[in-house]
What we know:
This protein is α+β, with helices and mostly antiparallel strands. Helices cover 45% and strands 24% of the residues.
Amino acid sequence: MQMTRERKAQIATILILGxxxxxxxxxxxxxxxxxxxxxxxxxxxxxDTIYRMLDAARDGDVRAYLNCYTSQMESSLRQIVKEKxxxxxxxxxRAFNASVKGVAIQEPRPAGDNEVRVRxxxxxxDRNEAQIYDLQRSAGQWRIATQENTQGxxxxxxxxxxxx
Length: 164
């Protein structure tokens, strides 16, 4: 049984489109070869750690949230879990994240060996607030060591106001 020329063209088209889709997925980090090999690239950059922390907060995933922290911050958060329970912290981090309309993360600035400082601006409906995160790299993972709140800036035109 021989394949017709048309059938060969269909198969070639499917293979080419499949390959292109695979390249696009890999480029957009939907799929990475490392994930198949069992290695993780979840905290390849300090920004990745901050996004992971925000995702965990949005989902109320306390374990993933705690995994983004180190040092005294991690100890303090674990103490809250001991005293008030995981559901309480999950509710708190979900509520914190629910009011965030947008996030702007600046490029990390070196603060020492395996340490960086990152300014993160949170956009709320009525104001913007910036926080400074100090991250440390340990065992190939970036984790948040400290966080400083800065003064919020009230917006002149609240987020979501229709433009006339």
